[in-house]
Amino acid sequence: MQLLLEKVESQILASGGKRSRSRSAVIAQFFRCGRHVSVEELTRLVKKRSPAVGSVTVYRTMKLLLRLGYVNEVDFGEGVTRYESNMSSHHDHLVCKSCGVVTEFIDSRIEELQSEVAHKHEFRPLTHRLDIYGYCRKCDSERDVPEMSV
């Protein structure tokens, strides 16, 4: 973790930014939390250790990390921008429409199929994102709705 934080900080300095304890606290907390997080959620987490850090600092720091390529912005249909680390390999998401839990998964068969489809249509993909919406096991067992065929 420390090496990652030092790398981010040196990149910020190289791009003309300045050292900031508040920014460092936000960056450390973001990478420590390891989940999809909104600015509001991250602000609450950061304030536990650094009460003086406000949501504007968190917002600007996340935009900076986005610009530097360390995070992705994601919206799972709830109208809230969330951030996820860009430091792990490509993955897709299962999103529960009831409780909002997001499960990341990797499946090489999906990646291969996407490559085949792109090749068949003479298309060169740059990136892609797959989010599958439905109900997790817990929420599905609480519902009495027939299953949709995919």
Number of strands: 6
Q: Say which CATH homologous superfamily of the largest domain is assigned.
A: Winged helix-like DNA-binding domain superfamily/Winged helix DNA-binding domain
Q: What is the average of the pLDDT values? A: 90
Radius of gyration: 18 Å
Distance between the termini: 40 Å
Overall 3D form? flat
Question: Any idea of the CATH topology of the largest domain?
Answer: Arc Repressor Mutant, subunit A
- Strand/helix succession: HHEHHEEEEHEH
Whole-number count of domains: 2
Structural class, by secondary structure, is alpha+beta
Strand order of the largest sheet: 1-3-2
Q: CATH top level of the largest domain?
A: Mainly Alpha
What CATH architecture of the largest domain do you see?
Answer: Orthogonal Bundle
Tally of helical runs: 6
The major β-sheet equals: 3 strands, antiparallel
Instruction: List unreliable stretches of 5+ residues.
Output: none
- Fraction of residues in helices? 40-55%
Strand content: 15-25%
